[in-house]
From TrEMBL:
InterPro entries: HTH_60. This is XRE family transcriptional regulator. It comes from the Bacteria. It comes from Bacillus norwichensis. Pfam families: HTH_60.
């Protein structure tokens, strides 16, 4: 793996590729990830990750740039910058908007009462066991609804 000190500053189309190399290197060093793991996390071929890290000249698509920046930022700041319950509340809001689901729909999908879900959404006290159940099942529902079917 390339050491951060070995990274060269390269201009491509007026943009410095070093920013993306540093993002990848930061992920590998901070989270003890190898390039194969990065490949899976970024949903990019391992050869492409190797090219970005090791080649002096590489053209990145806008999608690749956005993917690296977004996932790098989320892994570095997003996961630790918000509490788990707040994250589940955000995902609950996203589910209602993205899939046009009501709290009643979601409560039935999660097999909990609509009142408990509303209390969770409004940050009112609920039993810890119920809160954990809501959080885990909201994540699983989000994952299920956003998963692409196999080819």
């Amino acid at each position: 793996m390339t050491n951060q000190k070995e990274v060269r500053y390269i201009e491509i189309s007026g943009e410095n590729i070093n920013v993306y190399k540093k993002d990848l290197q930061s992920l590998t060093s901070k989270f003890a990830l190898n390039l194969k793991q990065l490949s899976k996390i970024l949903n990019m071929p391992l050869k492409r990750i190797n090219d970005i890290v090791h080649q002096e000249k590489i053209d990145l698509t806008n999608h690749e740039k956005e993917n690296i920046k977004h996932k790098s930022a989320m892994l570095h700041e997003g996961l630790s910058g918000i509490e788990s319950k707040e994250r589940a509340q955000v995902i609950l809001d996203t589910l209602t908007q993205e899939f046009d689901l009501s709290l009643m729909n979601i409560s039935k999908l999660l097999d909990i009462s609509e009142k408990e879900l509303l209390n969770f959404k409004e940050n009112k006290p609920i039993e810890r066991k119920v809160e954990l159940n809501i959080c885990v099942n909201i994540l699983m529902l989000h994952f299920t609804l956003n998963q692409n079917p196999p080819d």
